[in-house]
Amino acid sequence: MIAFTMIGTNDLAKAAAFYDALIAEMGGKRAVDLGDAIIYAGADGGALFAITEPADGNPATVGNGTMVALAAPDAESVKRWHAKALELGAENGGDAGERTRGPLTFDAAYFRDLDGNKLNFFKLH
């Protein structure tokens, strides 16, 4: 259903260093550098992830209620990838662990990247 997810940044070089290291830890890589945007691909060939400077020239801002969930193969990856994000300077938004919401049980860990975008690592049981 989803082809790619794109989030904004106000410092592309700093965001690229963060996501280059984080995506590599996840087994992915930088696929395309467009100059004002960078596209990452996972090893699974699924949806792409991109970072960009806003096309309209205004500052990038985070969305209220917006979050990107990055798929993890298992609970250990959720924990390891979250630790890597924090090591790279992300803000902890919720430690790795099992959660239940309604009928769903899942492992998740939440963080805000260097621009304040909210993301999580997610594995549905």
UniProtKB/TrEMBL annotation:
GO terms for molecular function: dioxygenase activity. Keywords: Dioxygenase, Oxidoreductase. It comes from the Bacteria. Signal peptide: none annotated. Residues 1-124 form the VOC domain. This is Glyoxalase/Bleomycin resistance protein/Dioxygenase superfamily protein. It comes from Rubrimonas cliftonensis.
